[in-house]
Amino acid sequence: MFRLVFVLFSCLSATTLPAQDSLLLGGDIQEVNVRGHKLNTYLLESPIGTSLVDLRMMDNMPRILGNADPMHYAQMLPGVQTNSEYDAGLHIQGCDNAHNMMMISGVPIYNAAHLLGFFSIFNTPHFATMQFTKSPSLPSYGNRLGGFVDMLMTDTLRDKASGDLSIGPISSQGTLRLPVGKRSLLTVSARQAYINLLYGRWLKLDTEVLRYSFGDYNVTWLYQPNDRHQLSIDFYHGYDNAKYSDEDYLLDTGLKWGNTMFALHLNSLLGRQTRLKQTAYVTHSYNDFKLDMNILSAQVPSRVTDVGYKAGLQQGPWSGGAELTLHTIKPQDPQLEGQLSIDHTKQDIQHSLEASLYGDYTLKVGKMSYSAGGRATFYQYGDYRRLAVDPAVSVKWNVGAVGEFTLRGSLKHQYMHRSGFSNMGLPTEFWFSASQDFPAQYAWNVTLGYETWLLNRMYHITLEGYHKWLYHQQEYNGNVLDVLYSAYDLHSMLLHGHGYNYGINLLVEKRKGRLTGWMAYSWGRALRRFYDGRFDGLYPANHERIHEFNSVLTYKIGRWSFGSTLVFASGTPFTASRSFYLINGSIISVFGEHNAQRLKPYFRLDLSVNYDFKSRNGRRSGINLSIYDVTMHNNDIYYRLKIYDNQFAARPFSFMLSIMPSINYYYHF
Questions:
Q1: Whole domain around residue 513: which residue ranges?
Q2: Tens-place pLDDT, residues 601-638
Q3: Distance from C-alpha of 576 to C-alpha of 596, rounded to nearest angstrom
Q4: What's 134's domain CATH number?
């Protein structure tokens, strides 16, 4: 007698058969049919508020100038505001980019974007997953008010060599994974631009010359002497180098910025339920801006270097740890020589200290789970000392098939500020330490989340509401001309105030089948209240988008795979000019209420198609064709003064290219 066994298998849940049902398997099974849907999602299962992204997703998604960047797709998640083309930051649940912490295996990186923010510094094939946390409540997260993005390496050894190669129109990148014996793995990645080599002749126009290059290099060595210990060494170095010159104006401009990071990690299994993770690291970021003219020479350097150690211990429901960080910071320090030389307030090198202890305990009672903990931090910069305790609590209620509810509340402090002329991925942003004049920032956070699964976990739905109260916020109120034509003083260039972020995020994800992906909707407000002179009042933040809809879809059939991303969002606020007038031949603008107007809504559709050539012996190669902004929609970035035939008016400025196609060759082995 034939027995037909139908098995519905889910990769994300293990099902244990009851004892009486196991008797059905006692006979001889002559035929077994396994039916189900293959799990194709790239959003791995994680707690509400955290997204764990499988970076293999980048293989099938649209690319910008040949680069598939994880930060670009982090903006497609609910609660993250989409950037305009000249914005290099992440704005998570209304927070500023300065409130986030970007990391490589838990080590902070202070400037994670290349020119104009089109792609980040991360060599995607070098990493296995990206952990993205919107509103962290666990005390183990560092001293930041916003979100956390951590690029994580694989912790699995390999028995044979493998690699990835990608050749694009402006840069190429490659990753090589080499087993070194049976107990270690060496991973090396590099990305290098060749814009000057291939396009140098097109970057020259009459007397104007533009040069630009960038590179990213990663080395990771993983060593596992036994099953209880794992040692890894991480190294990263990246740079941007841009030059612009104009012979007619005797002008030479140079912009250089970059990062270097070195870290030593040791993970130990001390018992069945006891794990210890330790990291010692050095991370350095630098910005240099130089300007040479016939009447003026200017330099605007800034630096930040961290030396740190962190240890985290987990034993069953208990977890705790310690962190120590020494900051050495050189804030933006203008240096001018020439006919327009003006005395500026010199910015001294700042040395500050953060020392933290944290702990957390989780208790499960039936369908309820309770977690409570705190983080105590001692901070010192000169005579400014602060001891703060940040509590964190959360409650989870599992209602079975109905879903799960999560309520979280926490207090977070941040002891570093960031400011600058713009957020365009240029070396104009800089960090400075909290002090008596610029007190440490802090924020109260409350979030309520709900998630459920439908149709045998084919669909995943999450809904989250949040409210944040932010204190001691700073916003830069100057521009690059202030450095050249007025006495520069950092304190006078900053607005001081508080902030309020609140909103809701909805995610609907399809996880199985040929067509997978997600759609997300976010509604949120990011308001800032300033108390400085003419800016006294409540205003929307510069990056606020009240409504936003995002869609990320992939479809695979045979050797073909298709990808698309869609963004439709409210315009960001700006301060409009009410009138212009001339004084001694100079145009003077009279501005209206701060951030009282908004740009037009933002819309963009990106498409891509991959074709895989025939695979042989585990080797796979193919061609990717991507189109950025298929509909050629002109998205306004900001308003600027335009002059035509002695007539001048404020007009919107859009990205110089309305559409960007690119072709890319890839090879995996």
A1: 43-668
A2: 999 999 999 999 988 888 899 999 999 999 998 888 77
A3: 7
A4: 2.40.170.20
